[in-house]
Every structure is written in structure tokens, then in C-alpha cells.
Amino acid sequence: MGFMDSLKGISRAKAGVSILSKEELLVKLLGLNREDLPFKIEKGDDADLLAQWKIVEASWYEIFAKANLEKVHKIWLSLNENEHTVKVLEESYSISWRAGVPTFSLEMQKFQGRTIGSKSFGIGYAFKGPDPLSFGKVYQYHFDVSEMKRPIIEIVTGSGWDFVPVISKKNL
Length: 172
What we know:
- The protein has helices spanning 3-8, 22-30, 58-66, 145-158; strands at 39-43, 49-53, 71-80, 85-94, 96-98, 101-103, 110-113, 119-127, 135-144, 162-165.
- By secondary structure, the chain is of the alpha+beta class.
- Strands 1, 2, 3, 4, 7 and 10 form a 6-stranded mixed sheet that branches. It has a two-stranded antiparallel ribbon with strand order 5-6. It has a two-stranded antiparallel ribbon with strand order 8-9.
């Protein structure tokens, strides 16, 4: 990888790997969906795929709310089979919480482009019930944007495709 590629966040296809078709790559990327991961990948409207935190799914929103996580991160992936390139756009939004349910704030802040890194982690302890000796951990979370990006980049580059960040949807 060249210096300019590194500055732009481009990850080139791994040398010597077979180039998969667009359909094969889509299947591999959708295969990242697992119940134990706090993000999901699904077919997108504005791009081929959309990866995002599972912030509104019942099994995850309590964890996000307890963590008072204030950022939502999305990654759009657009696959160009002729160039074997996956163009990627990242967006982050600020959110607020009401009654444990995520609601988007009226004053929404938005970032669009390439994220170098973003991490959020924490642990909470409290009394768990009427027994005064029932003090213990009630939640623990660790969300890192690279946990979403790293496996996507590995699959893309390991499939003979380039991972290329862009700065707006019109470039997808």
C-alpha cells in the first residue's frame, strides 16, 4: 500500500488472492451478521449494503441506553464489479435517550466521510434488588467503530477487492 493510499484510508486487495464476484462478496459480507455482535449488515437503499449499530433492536437498545451511547455509526458499501472496488461512506449521528428508547435529537450533529477511530466503553455497578448485599455489575459495554470496519475490510481485501473511502453519497 502506498503512502497516498494510506492517507486516504484505502486498503488494497491482498496479493495473490482470487477475485470473487460481486454476488460472492455480498454473501460473505452479509455472513458477518451474528446475534452476539452489536452491528448488522443489510441490503441498502442508497448503496448495495449498509452496516450499522443494532441500536433499535430490543436485545441491544437497553445496553446502548444504559451505556448512554450518544453516537450512531453507519457504513454504506457500494460494490463496483468492473473495478473490484468497494466504495465506502461513513456517517455518525448524535442521539439522545428517553425512557431507555433511542430517539434522534432535534439538534442532530452529523459527520460524513472517513472515520479514523471512535471508541466508547464503560461499566456500571448498582444494587440489584431488595437485598442490600446484591451489589454488582449491571452492564458492561465496549463499542468501537473499528470493530465494524475491521471485519469488513478483511473480507473485502481478502476477496480481491479494494476498500476505498469516499466523502459523500454522490461518490458511492
